[in-house]
Design a protein that fits this description.
By secondary structure, the protein is of the alpha/beta class. The protein folds into two domains: about 70 residues, ATPase, nucleotide binding domain (Nucleotidyltransferase, domain 5), CATH 3.30.420.40; about 90 residues, Transcription Regulator spoIIAA, CATH 3.30.750.24. It is about 30% helix and about 30% strand. The strands form two sheets. Strands 5-6-7-8-9 form a five-stranded mixed sheet. Helix 1 packs parallel to helix 2 and helix 3 runs parallel beside helix 4.
């Protein structure tokens, strides 16, 4: 059961939840007390949350929305693997400005004389702050004898933004 859209009707004492899959079929229908909605929603995978509320119930909607944003962005967005001289940095989802420190930390782990693949194939958006971090790393990579390859759809859209000679960076 994969929920793509969660509909929440926020009532005074209880809430009605309806979960839809990618095809729009109902896969979940529940009535819950307001206190349990937040715990339930925090355990769901990333999905769209649509809410309808009476005038006094808007505060729980803000809390649920806040939990979805915070919970999804505190999970690691970047995977780093290095085996001898071959390293991989993979973005598991879109890279926003809050992932800048994590990206810098992982790029600093790349050893000298390594081959590095930056895999952005799972992303549809990379914040300009992260592009700047990648640019700074690529400029210094030549001095550390690191060969950099950038892979993914975003690489083609970001190619004009990456300030490195094409001989040092290959897009695949």
């Amino acid at each position: 059961m994969r929920i793509a859209v969660l509909g929440v009707d926020l009532g005074k004492n209880s809430c009605s939840l309806v979960g839809l899959d990618e095809a729009g079929r109902i896969v979940l229908r529940r009535r819950m007390r307001r206190e349990t909605v937040i715990a339930f929603a925090g355990k769901l995978p990333t999905c769209v949350v649509a809410m309808e509320a009476c005038c006094g119930a808007h505060h729980i909607g803000l809390v649920v929305g806040f939990i979805f944003v915070v919970a999804r962005n505190f999970r690691s967005a970047i995977t780093f693997v290095c085996d001898e001289g071959d390293c991989l940095i993979r973005a598991r989802r879109n890279l926003y400005f809050i992932h800048k420190y994590e990206l810098q930390k992982e790029l600093n782990r790349v050893p000298d004389n390594a081959n590095l693949l930056i895999d952005l194939s799972s992303t549809s958006y990379v914040d300009l702050d992260n592009v700047d971090v990648i640019n700074a790393f690529i400029k210094g990579a030549a001095y550390r004898n690191i060969a950099v390859i950038v892979r993914g759809d975003i690489a083609e859209r970001s190619a004009p933004l990456i300030n490195a000679p094409t001989s040092e960076v290959r897009f695949s």
